[in-house]
């Protein structure tokens, strides 16, 4: 099961992971966001439900990657591996670029509404990012700002917690992403006992979202993951 990032949705996470996972015999499950205060809890509950019958290969993008790892730390025997694209921080978010960006976006949404905030995104972000948020953000409606703030405040697993997680982990980084620094992906890999990092670039992801999923799946295979 793959979880989307902050302000993103199941549509984008499927576009990243569905075909790369199908290539190794894994069906992609991707829950839609439950906006507002229940956002993280609903995603974690979805993982609990899906893991009732057999261990899961879980993962996600950015905040979704954090939640997948958080769930795996709590449920190591129900986790068959992790696919983590663009992890944004370790432990407390502090002033991590992704956390700061989410807080600023939430403030813009509260001040200008969703449409006004999207106009600002269109002026500053790559066209494909603007298009994705233009599709996903309205789905959150009035709960968008709360959802962004919740994600920006939630701690990711710590290095100590990750060190205890003995499952194959594939991490995908973008070498040109200032919001999700490649160094953070490297720090996650250094903490995890069985992790490999593979990289792409944001410009490539804009043309080919599957490139991010392929990087994560390839890294997972190199870390010892087994195709279905």
From TrEMBL:
GO terms for molecular function: hydrolase activity. Keywords: Hydrolase. It comes from the Bacteria. The keyword Hydrolase applies. This is Alpha/beta hydrolase. It comes from Actinophytocola xanthii. The lineage of its organism: Bacteria, Bacillati, Actinomycetota, Actinomycetes, Pseudonocardiales.
